[in-house]
Amino acid sequence: MQSEKYRGYTLWGHAILQQEDNPPTERFAGSGTVTRDTKVVEVSGVLGAFDTDEEAELVGLSWCRAWVDSHG
Prior knowledge:
By secondary structure, the protein is an alpha+beta fold. Helices cover 26% and strands 51% of the residues.
């Protein structure tokens, strides 16, 4: 999980391991959470499946920044 401060909010990018059986592969679901003063403001839901945990987290953070920009 990665976090950053942005325009008075704390943004969280999440990566959730997704294991597929056929063929056996590991992918990561990405999502984002926006918080302010330790309270959850908005949650993205799953934003897609990605090859690395870092990519999934970065997509989550990007979604969070876009949410703040459109609601700030």
